[in-house]
Amino acid sequence: MNDISSPLALKIRGLAKTFERPAVDGLDLTVLGGEFYTLLGPNGAGKTTTLRMVTGLQAPDRGSISIFGVDALADPIGAKRIMAWVSDEPMLYDQFTPMEYLDFVAGLWGVDPGVAETRARELLSCLGLAPHADERCGPFSKGMRQKLALAGALVHEPRLIILDEPFTGLDAASSRVVKDVLREKVRAGCSVIMTTHILEVAERMADRIGVMASGRLIAEGRLDELRLRAGAGDASLEDTFLTLVAQEQAAA
Ligand SMILES: Nc1ncnc2c1ncn2[C@@H]1O[C@H](COP(=O)(O)OP(=O)(O)OP(=O)(O)O)[C@@H](O)[C@H]1O
Asked: Which family does it belong to (predicted)?
């Protein structure tokens, strides 16, 4: 049952997926409207599998996923209309120029062509791709492709933006630009959930940080709350994170 007045950007309950072993193991996770949420965890913790289930790329074994009150399992198209997914290996059409790509993606979402063109130019400008707007994407660098994928994900003005490792392979200038665009989106009321291994990004950008291990959320909160939880005093996020994961492994 959809409840589109829900203030929760993302509500995951009892989510589970097993491959050879459980990858996501009864996960409960909530992202508030207007919140920047960062998901941390060691390799294999189940972060990407979680996001792939949220975006409909992987079917869960059990559990529920609601996006602003839209049941993402019962109404995947309704859910996709209000979210964006940026994977760590974006698929682009090499023969398209950025403007053609954005026009194509906007068309899939039924965005009015005039509106789409304005948005496309704004996004390319914000992301520093305006000088390449009419060049074919084929020879683009990884960073340029990553930024164009982000533009493509934002062209239908989603309310929830989901990113898997968006800063991997970006140089300092590109990282800054992507951070600025995401911050601006959150200022405008969007919600973001993002995985990263770059703890400094989580520390600087996240309203709340969730730490996953073995398919479950083992800790969640603001950095000061996580420090308290880890008994880590004024330790860095890296120390706090490593302490939390070690505590979980010791308890397992
Ligand atoms: N399609 C798949 N088939 C089999 N096993 C899979 C598949 N996808 C993920 N897994 C397994 O599920 C577990 C969780 O993987 P996942 O990619 O979700 O972790 P992650 O936290 O994103 O890790 P990383 O930080 O390394 O990206 C791992 O053990 C992984 O090998």
From this structure: Belongs to the ABC transporter superfamily.
Tens of pLDDT along 149-180?
A: 999 999 999 999 999 999 988 889 899 999 99
Give a yes or no: residue 84 inside a domain: yes
Is residue 2 in a domain? no
ipTM of the complex model: 0.97
- Could you tell me the residue range of the domain that residue 15 belongs to? 8-251
> pLDDT tens, 92-123?
888 999 999 999 999 999 999 999 999 999 99
**β-sheet bridge partners, residue 195:** 39, 164
Alpha-carbon gap, residue 57 to 210, rounded angstroms = 22
Torsion angles phi and psi, residue 8, rounded to 5: -90, 125
Q: Which residues line ligand 1 (CB under 6 A)?
A: 19, 23, 41, 43-49
Domains: count for the chain: 1
Ligand 1 closest atom vs CA 49: 18
